[in-house]
Amino acid sequence: MALRIIIGLALTVAAAAIAGRRLWWLYRLATSGQPAPERVATLRTHPGSGAETQVTEVFGQRKLLQWTVPGVAHFLTFWGFIILLLTIIEAYGDLFSKTFAIPGVGHWAFIGFIEDLFAVAVLVGIGTFAVIRLRNNPKTEGRASRFSGSHTRAAWFVLLMIFLVIATLLVYRGAQINTGDFPYAHGAFASQIVGHWLSPLSHGANMAIETTFIVLQLAVILGFGIFVTYSKHLHIAIAPVNVLFSRRPDGLRDLQPMRSNGKVLDFEEADPDTDVFGLGKIEDLTWKGMLDLGTCTECGRCQSQCPAWATGKPLSPKMVILDLRDHAFAKAPYLLAPSDEAREALPEAVKAEAQRPLVGTADANGVIDPDVIWSCTNCGACVNECPVDIEHIDHITGMRRYQMLIESQFPAEASGMLKNLENKGDPWGMGQQKRGEWIADLDFEVPVVDGPIGDGVEYLFWVGCAGALEDRAKKTTKAIATLLHTAGVSFAVLGPAESCTGDPARRMGNEFVFSMLAQQNIETLNEAGARKIIASCPHCFNAISNEYPQLGGNYEVIHHTQVLARLVAEGKLTPVTPIEEKITYHDPCFLGRHNKVYTPPREIMEQVPGIQAQEMHRCKERGFCCGAGGARMWMEERIGKRINAERIEEALGTDPDTISTGCPYCLVMLGDAISAKKGSGEAKESLEVVDVAQLLARSVARPEPAAPAAPAGPAAD
Ligand code: SF4
Ligand code: SF4
Predict the structure, then answer these.
(1) Is the predicted pLDDT of residue 273 greater than 90, yes or no?
(2) N or C terminus: fewer CB in 10 A for the chain?
């Protein structure tokens, strides 16, 4: 008895020392990053939402269960380990007393049953994981495997460790049944089966097995505990913390303002020598960013959904996180050195790692290749999938900001767009006077705001650059205006007073141009007294509703599909003319995934007689990007397959007569891809992409314009 107590306690103290040292090192590394007071403030102001994410995402495994089979396997393993904490307490107690019982639990048969049930559940879970890993083997599947680039050997080792935890548990419990030491008279069905297998052995042999396997179980658990702190399984310990401090409601929608030393950067006073301008060095990450790196489970869900990765680009959101993590760990001795002298004394390899540029080509020994950060469309699929709430877009944007503002290194073809935004207020440089020209094509008046909107006008219709200036998108704008007019909705537009929201500049990393345009627009909107805004472009919709509040602009913003769906539901718009077509709807990422508007466009299509709606395989929260977001619209796509081509091929798989969407960017990107497919004979000549508003306008009966009233008296000469 004494020997096993000594061995058990010695192992525990040694393991606690090794794991504790590692955890302290990790804590120091994380806190060497920038402060993030806003994360703590969010938790203080929204304690309920912090608790909710713990319940739904950590204990409920919500995001993991989005993938049914691996989700259920993880659910069983997670809850198995929570329940099996009881058995660990029992194993420790057994070191000291054969009659040990957990206070308050005692030897209640139900506990024995539940422990065995979850032990078996964990075996089922890890068996499922093994099959999943065999079927997604990166060696045979290549890039198609979500584990491509992950540390697969460590994952197999962890599965083995978990198996050993359960195996040693069931063996010592089985032996206990034969020695009479087992605390539960009934219910522990799996232990009873193992006990039955061990029953031919003598009492002495069962005693030896019991003692050996209790100590072995503790040794495996303690070894596993140490391994966790040195591997991707660190997520077991820190994922709940990462989820707790994640953005609310998620890392989508808005980009965060640039912060330096915990404060929002003021461009007029900022000093590039002392302030942090985006992510230029790994230590420019906040502690939450560092926590993200340590939390990644290498599951590859993000990678599997990334349109850039799927079309052969070098960007994998998983590898961005892993490469940053590897660099942070390798640079850690340098970051944690107490003095310049201590840094000088570090091995040359560490000093060389510390000098690596965060973004740079292989020739420059960069940690992340520039093509990686500029391939991102900001579609949000990675953030949406990540089960531990890692905020990939924020990290990619941080690197873009530094490259843009400090290094002036960005795809050259986008410089014209940025200059046009600065000088003319739109990406094409067409000038503000052209913004109202579409109105002349309508047969009714559209008030253009010149001063305060006035109480009689309910909505300000934010047309957006594409909606005002791009020929295909202008058709959508006119359809929306016509439908609002038909429904009797009072609205006005800003016309020449409207400028780009700044979204393409911000997504490129040019926060300076974004804040200039945003402040100008907020001033215009406030002067007009706008409160309720209809936006037709999801990028404008997202910027005004989610990003302008960062600069003091607070408005009620709705997308045109939301207004139109409501008007149809209220009977103010009645689609009557049948459209006898098979139509597939493409979810714009900034409308769907970023802002969760999935239903209204579909509701509109449902109400139009004749439309046969056909979903693509990748739709709604799993929708596949058109390739234009993240300012990719303004960059050449030189690597891999074109994202819009990939999307159109999927759409063609539904054999559509028409493709519909709710975004002018998507309209242009998908339209271009259709033209290319028509050129190669892969798409029928009649195929077109239209906005849902255009479909509705085609179907809605409009009253004929009133005939001019007859003159009351004789015509004047
Ligand atoms: S936002 Fe989209 S394109 Fe960018 S890394 Fe994530 S999944 Fe890939
Ligand atoms: S970033 Fe998230 S989704 Fe991607 S591999 Fe890591 S844990 Fe999985």
Answers:
(1) no
(2) C
Expressed in angstroms and rounded, the spacing between residue 567 Cα and the centre of ligand 1 is 34
User: Which of 612, 621, 619 minimizes the C-alpha distance to 647?
Assistant: 619
Of all ligands present, the nearest one to the C-alpha of 381 is: 1
Ligand lying nearest the CA atom of residue 235: 2
Question: Distance between CA 405 and CA 410 in Å, rounded?
Answer: 10
Contact 461, 436 (CB under 8 A): no
Alpha helices in 256-386 (DSSP H): 287-295, 301-305, 307-310, 317-336, 340-344, 348-355, 370-374, 381-385
Which residues line ligand 1 at a C-beta cut-off of 6 Å?
A: 305-308, 315, 317, 376-382, 392-393
Q: How many Å lie between the centroid of ligand 1 and the Cα of residue 590?
A: 12
The answer to whether 539 and 503 are in contact (CB under 8 A) is yes
Which residue has the least CA distance to atom 4 on ligand 1? 376
Collapsing DSSP to helix, strand or coil, 263 comes out as strand
Mean pLDDT across the chain: 94
Task: Give per-residue pLDDT as tens, 598-615.
Answer: 999 999 999 999 999 999
Nearest CA residue ID for atom 2, ligand 1? 379
pLDDT in tens, 407-418: 999 999 999 999
pTM of the model: 0.93
Helix (H) or strand (E) holding 126, with range, is helix 109-135
**What's 613's DSSP letter?**
E
Length of the chain: 717
